[in-house]
Amino acid sequence: MQEERKEFQSFKRKLQRQLTQVEEEMDSQKREITADFEDAMRKREHEFRIKSDELNAKVLEYELKAKLLGKELELSKVAQQKKSQEFSQAENHQRNLEKKVKETEWEIQDMRALKDSW
């Protein structure tokens, strides 16, 4: 019976060592998996930040382009309005000059008629 007890104690110690060894191995694997996971997460976070920065830069670029195009459009509108006003003024001036030319032609005709009637 004592022999069996010794064998049992020996078997128990052996199982305990194996259990401890398996637990240590599992802890080691857990640490390795956790470290790999954390590395992968840091890498993905870094890639995400880079992509986010790139997209933010693109958004800023497009906002600046839109702002610039808006200013260019406003300047074009102002220039177009100015040219329109200048064109209207030129047309009015042309009509006035044509009117003066006609009036002068009529005066000349009237003078010729007066001269011829004498």
TrEMBL record:
Keywords: Coiled coil. The keyword Coiled coil applies. GO terms for cellular component: centriolar satellite; centriole; spindle microtubule. Residues 1-32, 87-114 form a coiled coil. InterPro entries: CCDC57 (IPR042481). One of its GO terms (biological process) is cilium assembly. It comes from the Eukaryota. The keyword Coiled coil applies. This is Uncharacterized protein. It comes from Dreissena polymorpha (Zebra mussel). The lineage of its organism: Eukaryota, Metazoa, Spiralia, Lophotrochozoa, Mollusca.
